[in-house]
Fold:
Amino acid sequence: MTAGIDRQYLSAWKQAATHAGDSEPVQIWTQDGTYGGLDSGKLGIWGTVVGVDFDMCIADGACIDACPVDVYEWIDSPGHAASERKPFMPREPDCIVCRACEEVCPVDAVLITDPGDVEAAMAGADAAPAPAIAEAAATEVEAPAEAAATVAAEPAVAAPVWEPKPDVWLQRMKESLADADLPDTGMAKAKPLFKEIRKEALDSLSRGKEFIALVHNDKCIGCTQCVYFCNFASIDMIGWELETRTDAFESKKALIVEDTCTGCTLCVFACPVEAITMEARA
Amino acid sequence: MSRTEPYARTIPHPLFERMIINDAKTPDEAPWQPERQHEYGYFPGCVDFMDVEVKFSHLNKGDADHASIAAAAIKLMNAAGIDPLILDMNSFKCCGHDQLWQGQLEVFDELKAHNLRRMQESGIRTLVVTCAEGYRTFAVDYDLPGQGIQVEHITQTLRGRGLKFKSPEPVRVTFHDPCRLGRMMGEYDAPRELIQLVDGAEMVELENSREKALCCGVSSMMYCNDATKAVRKKRLDQGTDAEIQVMLGGCPKCYMHMQCLLNEERMDPGEHNHSFEMLDLMQFLSACLVEEAT
Amino acid sequence: MADDTGNLIGEYQQERQAEDAAERIGRRTEFTRETPRQAHSVLEASHVKGEPLYPHELVRDSVLTLYVTSILFFLAAFIPPPLHRAADPAAATAFPPPLPDWYLLWAFGCLKVAWDIEFTILGHHFFLMTAKVWGTLVQGMIIGMVVAVPFIDRALGYLIDPGPKEGMMDVLNSGHARRPIEDPVRAAIGVWGLAFVVMLSIYSINANIVLYYPAVTTAVLAGVTLWGPLACAGLTYLWLDRRRAEGARPQSDEERFDLYRNGITSRRTQRIYEFKLNRCYQCGLCDDICPVRTNEGEEELNIIFNTFQNEHDGVAMWSCITCGMCTAICPQNIEYVDYVLEQRAIALQGAAT
Structure:
């Protein structure tokens, strides 16, 4: 429904040229394999892991502001119909795949592909760039991860596991609506509003490798949003005994794993109660 | 020891609320005219926003689908012979219920002024809403009946229209009364009437129902903390005690909050005891609707 | 994240706590709210604070008692009462006749008004009771009616809302006390009763009155006793109805907003807007049923109590989930939920300029 960067460009488009980056060249992709230069008016998609459709780009600049690791910088594109400058990615290898730039682009001209998925994507696999955790864990039920904070014992953080909810009636409901021809309810209005907020939020957060997220336990409500959004499987849920006047039950609260946190600020943004803040690493 | 700090946290959900506040402050003076006259108008409200971008998407990996509430309501209204004008979010703004209850009167007044103007331009006679909070806001805080537009909750609109429902299999359901529909507006019977119409659904009452129904615990996106979580868990426990298979809500917010707790519990497979589904009443009825052959 | 309400609320709470700690005063609150549920109560409310029995009421009552006692002592010391010869019960023809104390004159009046109940139907003579008997019985009936008012009230409540009740819902809408201005009919009946008692008392001393004012005969007094109370009742009803009409004018949005901003300064307006929390008689049902209260582990998060005491340390006000169970169960139909909303609005008005 939304126009935007061609999500299959890694397999459908052709590698046309390269442009020098800080440490590695940046690949340029076009549909027919030809590339006429920065002043040609037709630029194609630049970048492999960090893909930006320069023909769609309107130089809003949100991506540059959003990036916590400073991948982008401006490059001039004189005479281009959409804008006279573009966000070039000379530090593409630094990308931490937080997808912040993807979220804030007002014209959806950015596509981030995890470096591990690039090969498969170029071979034509149908890789939708969703957070890997949700897809994997939704279908597997391993031995439950220990609820206690014994994370340090394991070399890699076990992905949080959960059993899927029963969804018999949900599926029935979806089927019943599948072929109904229903009018629009104005959903699309939310997207630009959201992007604006996202941009404002990113402007105000400190992010990057020198920072680490910190969860305030008195505020955390255990809703697991942050876990979903962390692209680095860096958040664990630990058990917390809650006592109320009539009930005692175990709830969960989030805990950031220090080793793998990259300071991308996605969890801060995802938290509905602002229980996560960015602190400088010691 | 006297508690001097609030319990955990007031939300309001920073993103969701900021979006609405920004939207409220953005003037929208463009005139709007519906193509033709409609008697009924349907206001979907922020239900879709929650689905699309507002970071409840972990609930929306397919297992909590808010936009379908609006879709189901439209489908049911069409089946009942009503052709509503969709008061969509392109021309309307959030009803402002959350802002009002959080005390942000200025934001609420701006939203109200905008929406009232649009309501008059729409030319409808009756406003139908699927959200209990919207229902109360339009009926009481906007005082639409005082301005010539009747306000109805979708359950009130659909009852008595001769709709037929059949459940594919025998199922035990219950209805969770939303605070805004039940205690604040006094409507307990319309949803139950509709559930009784479903052939094959057995309706049971939870231990606390009608006036005594337990709140879902997060009013106007204000409060989710240990205490209110206990209320919500108690509510779900009552569902288990009543041995239901589906719990039906009357408000997308109740639906969302129950789903959130159900989702959190899935983190520890087998350690919780809530194995029923949470659905909005509209979704359930849509799945059970017996379409008349035209 | 800058400029979001959540942080604002937190800051406001801290500021308020600091202020309150410095000077512990209750805050004036003004609000108006018109909802469909207030069909019986047409006035909105502002601030008349309730006070606890100890120490406020006890101290006040003690002071007044001692004051009155001291006056009595003073009078007893300097103006001794005149004492004549003892009353002679055999002096049946004493004129003017002996009278009971003033507070029992009405009973005396009942006896005077009474007549022997006897009538003749179709040549048969029926004698029911003497004047003395039914004159005495009537006094018992009057006292009985006064005692029965709460029960009558409750029965009326059941009439108004006869739905099936279970558990705590028994108290809903029954035994609902109302102020005169909210129920002019009952107030008029009450005024009639009072006036009737006063008139009866005056009637009972007809013999003494006619001594000084020959024009005021027993017949005149009888007429006044019969029609006077009715007139009083009528006037009361009309006056209350008129005042109710003044106060019941629904407010426009600008007016309501102005109240928040400028506060209610006019005394007359303050009298019209009574504070509804004043109705509370501390039955404790709301406290028992509040889901936040019953589910937290400490004793102090008492939302209802804090709102009643007008102590907004911020916790209670923002902890309320506005579910409405307290309002639903309150026998006085106090709208706590609306009150919380207004408080939040006022709080943010103050903080978010």
Summary: The longest helix of chain B spans residues 105-122. Strands of chain B lie at 40-43, 85-86, 126-129, 150-153, 165-176, 198-204, 246-249, 277-280.
